[in-house]
Amino acid sequence: MSIKWSDSLWIREQLRRKWDSGRILQSLLMPDELFPLRIPLKRPQRSEVNENFAEISRWIKSLKKQSKQETGFGYELVKKEIVHRQSGRNLLPTHALIPTMKDALRLLRKEQEGDKFLELARLIREEWPVLQEWILKHPHRVLAVGADWRGILAVLSWFFSHLRCGLYLRQLDIPGINTKFIEQRKGLLTELLNIILPEEAIDHSAPSFELRYGLQAKPVQVRLRFLDRQHYLQGISDLTIPVEQLAEFKPPASKVFITENEINGLCFPDIKEALVIFGLGYGVEVLKSVPWLKEKEIYYWGDIDTHGFAILDQVRSFLPQARSLLMNERILMSHQHLWVIEEKPSFTQLNRLTADENRLLSSLQNNTWGQGVRLEQERISFQEVKEAVERLD
What we know:
The protein is α/β, with parallel strands linked by helices.
């Protein structure tokens, strides 16, 4: 038989696509007009009938052998009479007809999955009828969650009964549910909680699952070092502080350096009335909630690459007085032997760079000196760092 004509495997594959799309499970839960399902067959053209008569006969016989007429389930064949002047009148299959849902599930060998889906959908809808639309939209996810649904429903009920409780995730007392169960399913729980909870119980602008639903979030920690020995706290120079407490701290410093690299922060040169904040990367956004930074001289030192300038631009969005440190063409060109490749450069438009910074960024984006040129901040000679800082003192 020619592979250009539909066989029983091809028919099953077309039906499987309906299954994969969720359409069959949707119809199983909410019966509609999906069945009987007609599937057009790839079949011989009228001009081929006489020339391939024997082959066409074998094709029809093969289709019949796997049809419901022979097996008791599956597809039926819809035929159309074709009249040919040489071969006469012939009935050719034009469609495979799947009569019922039962035929479809058995043909796909999905009877157990169908029964399981109905059982899980009933379980969910009994407790949360409002999730009916979600179930219909995501039938395969319902199946994939499987036995975990009882735990998921317990979590949903707890959140509904304890709106914006202010507890840490570890403190939630849900029988049979541990913290890890929730942490591993935050994406799914977010979708479902957004549906079942009253709108006033959800903070859609919150950056984390915990804050969105009124839990206590793990504090964001900011690490800093005092660069003036006279300002050490009882001999301590290196501190890690929750950002909320940092906002109230107000240290005695007139200059604040921000650098991404941890080692750079640890070995940053001493300078009077100054401190360095380090290790945040793109997380510098947390410093937006530290109001006293607006009153300080701010210097940002990052990698000389497209992402380094993107972070500098980000810093200036809330600290417009920030100046770059060691992020210029002279430094880049004097360290050519230490260049590496930036694998995934950023081409985001930046609006807060100086003219010189913009020119350097454009040269990097346009590969003026080579593909993806990048100078990591920790590769810059320490002598250059000291000299740059001393010029500011």
